Predict the 3D structure of the following.
Amino acid sequence: MKAIKLIIISIYLFGVISCDKKDNSSELDKVVLSKIDYQGCFIKNPEEATKSVTTGTDTVFYSIDNDTLTLSVIKFNNCCGLLKDSVIIGNDNVKIYISDICVDNCLCYCMCNFVFVFYFTDFWHKNIDFYIYLKGLDESNYELWKETKFIDGLD
C-alpha cells in the first residue's frame, strides 16, 4: 500500500513540475518599442513643418545609436490627411500599419512629408523584418507598402 501511495505521489509531483515550466522564450526574443516621435507634417507650426513641399520621396530607413534602433518612415501625403499608426511586434518581425483616418476636409492643395520615428530596444543578436502597410483615404484594406530587414552580424 505504501508503495502504491509513493508511486501515485511521484507521478503527481512529476506532472506538477513538468506542467509548471512555461516557455517564455518568445517573449524574451521580441524587440521592444520604447517610443514613437511624430515629425514633419505632424507638427502644426508652419515654421517647423514644410507644408508647401511639391515633391517628396517615400522613404524607410533605420539607424543605430547606442542601444536603440531607430526606424524612420517618411510618407509623402496630402497635408490635410490625418495619419494614424499601429505597431505589432512578432518574434522576428515588426508590422507597422499606417492609415489615413481623416473624415472632414481631407483634401487640400498641398503635399508634405509625415515622419514617423519608431525607437526599438532589445534588438541585438536578432534579424528583424520590418513590414509597413498602408491604407489610404477611402480604402478598405491595408497593402504592403515597404519592407526592410535589420540583420545583426553579431549572431
